[in-house]
From TrEMBL:
InterPro entries: NUDIX_hydrolase-like_dom_sf, NUDIX_hydrolase_dom. Its cofactor is Mg(2+). PROSITE patterns: NUDIX. This is GDP-mannose pyrophosphatase. One of its GO terms (molecular function) is hydrolase activity. GO terms for biological process: nucleoside phosphate metabolic process; ribose phosphate metabolic process. The lineage of its organism: Bacteria, Pseudomonadati, Pseudomonadota, Gammaproteobacteria, Alteromonadales. Residues 38-169 form the Nudix hydrolase domain. Keywords: Hydrolase. Belongs to the Nudix hydrolase family. NudK subfamily. It catalyses: GDP-alpha-D-mannose + H2O = alpha-D-mannose 1-phosphate + GMP + 2 H(+).
Length: 180
């Protein structure tokens, strides 16, 4: 027997961005329970770097009622079969207008696997050239910010940058030697 077996599953909410389901489960001990699961497509997060500076985006995050600074990131609900590289290049172009001559794959992480199946692919983008943004309607307030690596690190330490995916992507890329 698995650690946890699914006895029943029902969708309790669904829209084009996510599905919420409730699963009736059986634990190896014989105890039954429920598990709430949020299903979302994997996304890409991109660290655009140029001359010891990174490009970030700032946007209003409705769920917390604040503007936040983070690396460009996103998923394509309408193109679920896109490769992570295609998604990363597309999101970078859409949100910042940047095109990368070089995209390096850093790794894959899960966002919050305690309740959600979503993960993310991390890329470092370099050899950048500027083009036009192509923002989605949901991103109409998005601003692009160029920041030195030193300022970026200090903003993480000070708690000014709170996006866990951005902090994690930067940390993993640094540990793997992608950022010098």
């Amino acid at each position: 027997m698995k650690d946890i077996e699914t006895l029943d599953s029902k969708i309790v909410y669904q829209n084009k961005w996510l599905t919420v389901r409730e699963d009736k489960i059986l634990r190896a001990s014989g105890n039954e329970g429920i598990y709430g699961v949020v299903e979302k497509p994997d996304f890409a997060i991109i660290i655009p770097i140029e001359d010891d500076h990174v490009y970030l985006v700032e946007q209003y995050r409705y769920t917390i009622g604040e503007r936040q600074i983070e690396f460009p990131q996103g998923a394509w609900e309408d193109k679920p079969d896109s490769s992570p590289l295609e998604l990363a290049a597309g999101e970078l172009r859409e949100e910042t207008g940047l095109r990368a001559g070089k995209m390096e794959y850093v790794g894959f992480q899960y966002l919050a696997y305690g309740f959600c199946n979503q993960g993310y692919h991390i890329f470092v983008a370099s050899d950048l050239s500027q083009g036009e943004q192509d923002l989605d309607r949901e991103e109409e307030d998005l601003k692009v910010i160029k920041m030195s690596l030193t300022d970026f690190k200090n903003k993480i330490i000070a708690g000014d940058i709170k996006d866990a995916s951005s902090c994690n992507a930067f940390g993993l890329a640094s540990l793997k030697g992608f950022l010098g």
